[in-house]
């Protein structure tokens, strides 16, 4: 395999999601710093091709909604934000967010002819999609006005492009993340198990990563779906589960400490996400 092929941001197995608690922002009261903190999570998700970020409520639903609003905004390609995002107090400081620059934001940089767009006109015969280009994209099928869609550009016509709608799940490139809120940790865990996910819990009380390295490596080569669950600024995932009367051992397939002999009192959740996903990415890509 050529070096260039190894650099392509393709979707690879297993499908990986992450989960963070709503208390992730509980110790940050300044909206600017809250926004910046959430931006690190979005960047980590995009860098390591995470398909979904799940937020489970362990303190206040308002915190979960704030996190979700900022993450959803960050995931939208910049050229679509004015058309898709309404005025929202939670988004007051999104100018501080780092750009993702993932494939669906700048497809031209990756020689990809698929773009995200929004339907701006539609009738029984065709629809017109704005996709941030010099011309709109015409699709020969009715679509819901205002809906965000993925369109493949097939050819250029006079004053417009001709394209077709493609299912996001069929795109071979990493195409951004989705965001979902769960009312509590138990609801999250039950949903993951019922949908066939194996669960990895990141906790300083877990087995040192080198003790479960072989098991984790084998899991990543055989699994279809993996979810990695993180704790918050005050409580680890096992402590949050215990607080709400949930036996985490019934759900967690591996509980691991990814930072042996950490040199600080506590590791921030956004720091842990980068560390854990970096190691997971290594095992996932290692042949």
From TrEMBL:
Pfam families xrefs: Methyltrn_RNA_3 (PF02598)
Matches recorded under PANTHER family: CLASS IV SAM-BINDING METHYLTRANSFERASE-RELATED, METHYLTRANSFERASE C9ORF114-RELATED
Instruction: Please give the name of this protein.
Output: RNA-binding protein
InterPro entries linked to this entry: Alpha/beta_knot_MTases, NA-bd_OB-fold, Put_MeTrfase-C9orf114-like, tRNA_m1G_MTases_N
Q: State the species of origin.
A: Ignisphaera aggregans
Output the SUPFAM superfamilies linked to this UniProt entry.
alpha/beta knot (SSF75217), Nucleic acid-binding proteins (SSF50249)
Gene3D superfamilies to which the protein is assigned, alphabetical: 3.40.1280.10, Nucleic acid-binding proteins
